[in-house]
Design goal:
CATH superfamily of the largest domain in chain B: Thiamin diphosphate (ThDP)-binding fold, Pyr/PP domains
Number of strands of chain A: 16
Helix content of chain A: 25-40%
CATH topology of the largest domain in chain A: Pyruvate-ferredoxin Oxidoreductase, domain 3
Number of domains of chain B: 2
CATH class of the largest domain in chain A: Alpha Beta
Structural class of chain B: alpha/beta
CATH architecture of the largest domain in chain B: 3-Layer(aba) Sandwich
Distance between the termini of chain A: 69 Å
Strand content of chain A: 15-25%
Largest interface: A-B, 21 and 24 residues
Number of helices of chain B: 14
Strand content of chain B: 15-25%
Radius of gyration of chain A: 23 Å
Radius of gyration of chain B: 21 Å
Oligomer: heterodimer
Helix content of chain B: 25-40%
Number of helices of chain A: 11
Shape of chain A: globular
Distance between the termini of chain B: 36 Å
Shape of chain B: globular
Largest sheet of chain B: 7 strands, mixed
Chain lengths: 393, 411
């Protein structure tokens, strides 16, 4: 058997679907310039046409037909030579085919191989999110904002060729820089893109990540049932009703936390999260009422705490909140845990409010694009429109 | 034909009355006796007679149920699906392309383990828009987990409707069941039918108990949406397990039916007619049994030893039993009131299934000839059956015959 290489692109559907496809196609076509054969294909847990869904695109490259076939004889590669993460919030993990649960972003990466992340953050910061593993690997940051390149009218920001240049440096066995250059010249016919690929190649740097380095969080594991043990009628036992819970300081019991499926973590689709000012909250209930995923816990104080295991980051709560800066959506990559904000607030009001102020400052301004909507505040714009229509009857 | 084994006096106690009714009316009466909770309707010939008669029963105060006229067949089957999951005994039905329009809803009911009983008034699929009988409508769900049965008389329609509820609602089953009635020949033909009393039916048919699968605030479950996409194979295996149990359950229910009502159907899966000393045998489903039986008697008078096997249950297909029954004949002629274009030997559905059953279940290899006949409601005539039998006898003598022949075709 000849040599077989697999490259995995981890991206957010639907925004980065075309970008990921363009990159995996580029890998195959560039490698073909060296006489190699390959295929490019998409795999997904949920639909890659849905907003923010973690999805994957792969390129398999081989020296000969039979080796390629061996690589294709499985649903998706179990081991990959390079993993590229197109959105740094995915460093917290994503679901692959069939929701086998949340997996570390590098779960398929071969020991010693390279994880490339497109991010404005540095490697040590990213490692707060990327889970620990037992095998060493290399981590490279390709400086850049999360790209929507290739989607509808979004600007082509050269992310596709920058990734190709980085792969040529990280793993020249898959595809060399010359072949990438030839691919860009022949197929993309853009000399600026040629420069972008070369720059990415030259500036490429990676650090060694040692075993045990990174986010210590243990992801939930579960066993899939045998057919005799499964409930019949495609039915699932319902979650019990939720219940009241305790104030961490006063120990007073109150509020209501809905019960949630422990294995169905929705936060992997989140690219921004609500941060809540419990001091200015008027308890108007609008965030809690309008949340499409029932993500808000009612605290014993009767304020509303976004449960970050359940929140998928749509931003509707921010748009419906009538109090200025009471709920603010902030880029998810800044956070490295899903702890309760309300508990932090209860434990130390001043420290929390100070943290909140600093965090809100770093929030991207409204009208800047955000996943879920084309830009933050879009939902808010739709409210008067919908109201006008409703009033007209 | 079913025979009554109870003595006359006892029979009088058991039977409430005798009535001259169509097959469709017989099923409506069975639904009344079974105390069906939710009925959905949407008109299409020839199924619609059952809904007309049932709405009459409701209007007259004889039947207490939710009678919902849906805006199309898809909704018709969706409504009863949901009602059944909530614990209601349900009835619905359709014909021809109406049945096909409901296909999405028909597809999901077996996996959701919904014991709906549906009447299919068999009708040719469009085009052209003909009303005559053809079995391809009901057969469209044959691979999906539905139980499929064909009846040939109004009496059998009534009895089988009661049996259908017992079988479908048995906890070991919980799958939908289509009760097929040949359009016009059965749905619109009135015959004398013995109608059992409500007390007898109550004794025979226990309450529908959905148990832990009941969708109810006291039993909080979600049905379908939260199932993992990678559970498909295990869910299919569960439906396979139902089909493994189906024959035993059906045998039990027929035995209990006989005990309760005194009407004897013998082997539940097929009826044998003049097969005892037969050399060759014909096989078919539904009301074609009438001309075939007349032809068999005529041929017998001419000294030709021919018999007839009428298949009652197509799903489950009692393969080993049927093969064991048929292996003793020198040749078999299947009369298919359906088609399966492009199938092996270009035969109809029943012949193709039967050959498969014979290949594994029979110790002999009698030739199995197929005769496509009576499509679109065309008559299956006595001379047709005579011609078919002639060919089957030729095959029995070792003379090569075409594996598939079209009978009663112009040209």
């Amino acid at each position: 058997m000849g040599q077989l290489f697999a490259v995995e692109l981890v991206y957010r559907g639907v925004f980065q679907k075309t970008l990921a496809k363009n990159i995996t196609r580029g890998i195959v076509l560039a490698a073909h310039n060296e006489g190699k054969l390959g295929i490019s294909f998409g795999r997904y847990g949920d639909s890659p046409e849905r907003n923010g869904i973690p999805a994957k695109s792969f390129a398999i490259v081989a020296n000969d037909e039979e080796t390629l076939q061996a690589g294709m004889a499985q649903y998706e590669p179990k081991q990959v030579d390079v993993t590229v993460v197109l959105d740094d919030t995915l460093c917290k993990g994503g679901e692959s085919w069939a929701w086998y649960g949340l997996q570390p972003v590098h779960h398929a990466l071969k020991p010693g191989h390279t994880l490339i992340v497109i991010s404005l953050q540095d490697a040590p910061t990213l490692l707060k999110s990327i889970h620990r593993r037992e095998e060493p690997y290399k981590l490279a940051v390709l400086k850049g904002v999360t790209s929507f390149s290739g989607m509808w009218v979004y600007k082509d920001d050269h992310t596709d060729v920058r990734v190709l240049g980085a792969i040529a440096k990280a793993l020249p066995e898959v595809v060399g820089l010359k072949s990438v250059e030839q691919f860009i010249t022949d197929k993309l016919k853009n000399s600026l893109k040629l420069t972008s690929a070369q720059t990415a190649f030259e500036r490429f740097k990676s650090i060694d990540v040692k075993p045990g380095q990174g986010n210590p969080e243990q992801l939930p594991k579960f066993e899939l049932l045998k057919w005799e043990d499964m409930r019949e009628g495609v039915s699932i036992k319902g979650q019990p009703q939720g219940c009241a819970y305790a104030d961490p300081v006063t120990k007073q019991i109150g509020g209501f936390r809905p019960a949630r499926n422990e294995l169905f973590k929705k936060y992997s689709t989140r690219t921004q999260r609500p941060v809540v000012n419990f001091a200015t909250c008027t308890k108007c209930t609008l965030c809690w009422l309008n949340c499409p995923d029932a993500s808000f816990d009612v605290t014993p104080d009767k304020t509303y705490d976004a449960n970050l295991e359940a929140c998928c980051g749509c931003g509707i709560c921010e748009d419906v909140c009538p109090v200025k800066d009471c709920i603010t959506m902030v880029n998810e990559s800044q956070f490295h845990d899903n702890h309760s904000q309300w508990e932090a607030f209860k434990k130390d009001h001043d420290a929390y409010l100070k943290w909140l102020e600093k965090t809100i400052e770093s929030a991207e301004p409204e009208e800047k694009r955000a996943h879920g909507f084309r830009y933050r505040g879009q939902y808010k714009e739709q409210v008067p429109e919908a109201l006008a229509i409703a009033q007209k009857g | 034909m079913a025979t009554t084994t109870l003595p006359v006096e006892e029979k009088k106690q058991v039977q409430e009355q005798e009535a001259l009714i169509t097959g469709a009316e017989a099923i409506a009466i069975a639904c009344k006796l079974a105390n069906v909770d939710v009925v959905t309707a949407y008109p299409i010939r020839p199924y619609d007679t059952v809904m007309q008669y049932m709405s009459q029963l409701v209007a007259d105060g004889e039947m207490d149920c939710e009678f919902i006229v849906a805006e199309g067949e898809h909704s018709q089957f969706e409504i009863v699906k949901h009602a059944s999951v909530c614990g209601a005994r349900v009835f619905c039905g359709s014909s021809g392309v109406g049945w096909m329009y409901a296909m999405e809803a028909l597809t999901v009911t077996p996996a959701l383990r919904v014991p709906m009983v549906a009447m299919v008034g068999n009708r040719a699929l469009d085009d052209p828009g003909a009303f005559g009988v053809e079995h391809n409508d009901a057969l469209a769900v044959r691979d999906l987990g539905w139980l499929l049965t064909w009846v040939d008389s109004a009496q059998e329609a009534l009895d089988t409707a009661l049996i259908a509820y017992r079988v479908a609602e048995d906890r070991r089953m919980f799958v939908p069941l289509a009760l097929s009635c040949d359009g016009a020949f059965l749905t619109h033909s009135q015959a004398l039918v013995e109608i059992p009393s409500a007390e007898q039916v109550k004794k025979f048919l226990p309450r529908y108990d959905r148990g832990e699968l009941l969708l109810h605030p006291d039993n909080v479950i979600s049905v379908a949406p939260q199932a993992n996409e990678d559970w498909v194979m295990e869910i299919r295996r569960q439906n396979y397990a139902v089909t493994e149990r189906a024959c035993d359950v059906i045998r039990e229910v027929y035995a209990d039916f006989e005990k309760t009502f005194g009407r004897k159907y013998g082997n539940p899966f097929f009826e044998e007619y003049m097969t005892q000393d037969a050399e060759v045998v014909l096989l078919g489903m539904g009301t074609m049994s009438t001309p075939v039986k007349v032809a068999v008697r005529k041929l017998r008078e001419e000294g030709k030893k021919v018999g007839f096997v009428r298949l009652r249950w197509f799903r489950p297909f009692a393969g080993p039993e049927i093969a064991k029954c048929l292996e003793r004949f020198k040749a078999i002629g299947v009369i298919d009131r359906d088609f399966s274009f492009g199938s092996p030997n270009l035969s109809g559905v029943v012949a193709t299934e039967l050959r498969s059953a014979m290949y594994t279940g029979a110790s002999t290899r009698p030739p199995v000839l197929d005769f496509i006949c009576g499509l679109g409601g065309r008559e299956v005539t006595v001379p047709d059956v005579e011609a078919i039998t002639q060919s089957v006898f030729e095959a029995a003598k070792g003379k090569a015959q075409p594996l598939t022949q079209w009978i009663g075709l112009r040209g």
